[in-house]
Design brief:
This protein is α/β, with parallel strands linked by helices and 251 residues long. The protein folds into two domains: 176 residues, Rossmann fold; 59 residues, N-terminal domain of TfIIb (Single Sheet), CATH 2.20.25. The protein is built from seven helices and eleven strands. The strands form two sheets. It has a seven-stranded mixed beta sheet with strand order 3-2-1-4-5-11-10, sandwiched between helices. The chain has a four-stranded antiparallel beta sheet with strand order 6-7-8-9, with helices on one face. Strand 7 and strand 8 form a beta hairpin. Helix 2 crosses helix 3. The model has no long low-confidence stretch (mean pLDDT 92).
Amino acid sequence: MEAYTDFASVYDVFMDETPYEEWFAFLKKRLCEDGIEDGLLLELGCGTGTLTQLFEDAGYDMIGVDNSIEMLEEANRKKYAENREILYLLQDMQEFELYGTVRAVLSVCDSLNYLTDPEDLVYCFRLVNNYLDPKGLFMFDFNTVHKYRDVIGDAVIAENRENCSFIWENGYDEESRINEYDLTLFIREQSSSLYHKYVETHYQRGYELDEIKAYLKEAGLVFVAAYDDYTKEPAHKDSERIVVIARENGK
């Protein structure tokens, strides 16, 4: 079954503690260090558009790409409610298509881990290189093998809110490095005491930093830096989320 269908309607509710503002500040500072203080940016795996909106608020022209129509419906609902001019495109990350180049490409919240075939990830990186302005930046994060194998492993996560709740069951396969999430949602109907049950399954693959560096090189991008989460600390063997900075290197 598809991911981010029924979950989309309550995604922002359960993600309300996600540090989007901190991520934005980190990425914005890095863009400004490269002189990218305005212009057109692309966010891959934009979801409901929270980070996309923060960059638009900062004066950037934004394009958001996601392959979930339900997530983009939520993004567009917020866009029209606030009279924004963000362009949202329903496309897969491994085959997205733009009309021209952008100054930078962003991808956060382990969106790229959903590309479970390394060949698809390399192809996505090739597309990024193709659609970046000369010397443009590619900034993204990914979850490591260590996080899937040693931290969340076979854990079960549950959360209960006023009108919705979820049970998130993880299962990690060491051979394939695929982490399977079985997500069970209970969402209350409006003006009712009834709850509907929904089930989604998500698949993500763990990657190592050395692999990511090799895939970037294969795609024609230049690796610049890797950080432990959204800090200035270098990535290390116990990093759970790694933030990578790469650069376009000539078409």
